[in-house]
Protein: Hydroxymethylpyrimidine/phosphomethylpyrimidine kinase
Amino acid sequence: MPQQINSFPQVATIAGTDSGGGAGIMADLKTFQARHVFATAVVVAVTAQNTLGVQASKLMPQTLIDAQFQSLAADFQIRACKTGMLGDSNHVRAVAANLKKYDFGPIIVDPVMIAKGGATLLNAEAIHTLKHELVPLATLITPNVPEAQTLTGQKIEKKADFITAAQMLQNLGAKNVLIKGGHLDLPQANDYVLLSDHTGFWLTAPKSATKRTHGTGDTISACITAELARGADLATAISISKKYVTATIAHSIQVGHGHGPLNHWAAQKEGLSFENI
Ligand SMILES: Nc1ncnc2c1ncn2[C@@H]1O[C@H](COP(=O)(O)OP(=O)(O)O)[C@@H](O)[C@H]1O
Ligand SMILES: Cc1ncc(COP(=O)(O)OP(=O)(O)O)c(N)n1
Structure:
């Protein structure tokens, strides 16, 4: 009898590494593993980083970016992918060109700009390039409040501002929008979702009083990528991912001396299976 080939959902992160293990590709890989998908990665940048900040970083040569995409496309069936730290204009352009060339399924664009410690992860010129060349390719864009404000010019303070900014991001070409509200000084972590059919909904969770939030944006976007690859519809993938990131923040682990990393085992710790968190 021929051996049955087990097709396992395969995903890709296209982003930067974090030597401290809390954010970027490292957070993505931990999330993918926890959410039962097979993780692959295109390394765009390498950072020397820990929970105290980014000490150094370097962007990969563009030929190596192209080669990594080619390697993945030649051997894997990538069902969904996400982008993170892209560094500069040329690298945003190179990633956009590869995402047009290869079908990696739904594209989740996390428009990472500044690390929690304040380091710039996307320069000013690259913001313009991202807005015009990568955002139009996005199945879903997942900015935090400062990133959404930068991309739209819309100040975000109250609920109506989230809705206006989300509509502006759709006008830039993103099909669906998730604006994450974790940066606002509120007792709740409120996020707003605007879907391609123009319906919107809020996601709300209690805000944990902790500074162990390094990699929250990476984790929620990686979880959405994983859930889409496993077959969920977008609204369900986003709702599951909000629950997952909330659990990883609420059950924090003591690692490092600054903005600590999340607990990617949190769902298991709560006795929640990967299907029903
Ligand atoms: N202290 C917190 N407690 C609970 N949820 C949080 C907390 N901080 C952020 N979140 C949630 O984590 C996700 C990402 O957070 P946010 O800080 O807004 O974006 P980013 O990590 O990209 O800067 C969002 O769902 C947000 O609501
Ligand atoms: C390589 C790399 N990518 C992304 C980030 C951003 O992480 P962080 O500052 O914790 O913010 P969120 O992931 O929560 O948006 C990074 N620091 N390094």
